[in-house]
Amino acid sequence: MSQEKKTYYITVGTGEITKSRTDSAWNFKIEATDDEIIQLRELFEQNYSTEWQNFFRAHVPYVQYHHDRENDQYDDTIVQVYQMIYNLGDAEAKQHIESMGIIKDL
Q1: pLDDT digits (tens, 9 = 90+) for 62-89
Q2: Gap between the Cα atoms of 7 and 89, Å rounded
Q3: Residue 103 clears pLDDT 60, i.e. is over it
């Protein structure tokens, strides 16, 4: 895989990663290698799978949110996504993520 960094545009809500600035709305601009993009895609795919588990779990009324492994897993993975975006992102991405307070060690 190429280790040359390329510009990508990320939409966190949909898990979209694109090279085009104009194809769709995006949240963050990053510079990443092919390996880093693969890792980010895997995190998005992991959360997509967890979302389906949450959908099915949501139909079990006696499990509360704060006692739900799938929700904890989703939360942990989304923090990893934001950490990657922070590490790879431009100044605007870093500033926005810092303002969110989602990453504890900033």
Answers
A1: 656 555 565 677 788 899 999 999 999 9
A2: 9
A3: yes
Note the residue count of the chain. 106
DSSP the chain: -----EEEEEETTTTEEES-SSSS--SEEEEE-HHHHHHHHHHHHHHHHHHHHHHHHTT-TTS-GGG-HHHHHHHHHHHHHHHHHHHHB-HHHHHHHHHHT--TT-
pTM: 0.78
Q: How many CA atoms are closer than 13 Å to the CA of 21, on its beta-carbon side?
A: 5
Pairing status of strand 28-32 against strand 6-11: antiparallel
Q: pLDDT at residue 47 above 90?
A: no
Amino acid 56: pLDDT: 46
Distance CA 52, CA 57 (A): 9
How far apart are alpha carbons 32 and 106 in whole angstroms?
20
